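quick one: adenosine-5'-diphosphate bound model?
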Amino acid sequence: MSLLRSLADRDRVFDFLVPAASPVDVRHGPILYLEDVTVSFDGFKAIDGLDLTIDDGELRCIIGPNGAGKTTMMDIITGKTRPDTGKVWFGSRHDLLAMNEPEIASLGIGRKFQKPTVFEALSVFENLELAMAADKRILPTLMACLTGEVRDRIDEVLATIGLAGLRHRPAGILSHGQKQWLEIGMLLMQRPRLLLVDEPVAGMTEQEMERTAELLTGLAGAGKQSVVVVEHDMGFVRSIARQVTVLHQGSVLAEGSMDRISHDPKVIEVYLGAEEAA
Ligand SMILES: Nc1ncnc2c1ncn2[C@@H]1O[C@H](COP(=O)(O)OP(=O)(O)O)[C@@H](O)[C@H]1O
Ligand SMILES: [Mg+2]
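yep, here:
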């Protein structure tokens, strides 16, 4: 009965099948804007007067030593942590500080955590299919009425993440790198406008890192996704970086091209120096 009712309610069952026009308004400026954001944990300022501007379609790398506030920054953008002060805007229309986590996600902000969380017993295809369903309880319904549109989207994403040949294999047999790509694919199913990716290449082979660099640089672009990558591996950052932001003690220490950053004495002192000495 309740299944019938949910089928009868077209909006609830089918709205995810039609890509909604993204509500984000970037006509008058950046896709993401943080101004003077501060958050304290027990009196300790993990984020301290942070300003950050990400343009539509940009690929931005965020680096910085452990404890610099990188993960906390992502927590603030996604609504997991509330800052004490500051502004956080998505386009010019959405004040993210007035929204909760699910509302922010539904605006088109996708977050990839470090550890892959794919469903190992399901096939690659089914993982992508599942990612499309806003309400996971309707999966059986979904399976029964996969539209051409959803199939096309899955094919598109499979090609993007390079797993088309493995579509019918269980996700459990994938390598660590392939699982990371699948999880990025699961985020892409929802057609996000902004992707936040935390340390994507940790534990990957050289070859997987190269493929990931291609994937992330290919995703970014105006009208497609903007991508923010937090990463420790400097070789990897060098291979994909356009604009780099260096965080230190909760605020921006330096910002610019990788070349400029790697010659900045302040950056060398707090980060690159330590990296090269390690
Ligand atoms: N929930 C929390 N409670 C207390 N301290 C926290 C919490 N989250 C982060 N911190 C502290 O805030 C600082 C920044 O942490 P984090 O954002 O994880 O840094 P990064 O990701 O750059 O390594 C660290 O000193 C960390 O110990
Ligand atoms: Mg972190």
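The pocket of adenosine-5'-diphosphate (ligand 1) is lined by residues 41, 46, 64, 66-72 (CB under 6 Å).
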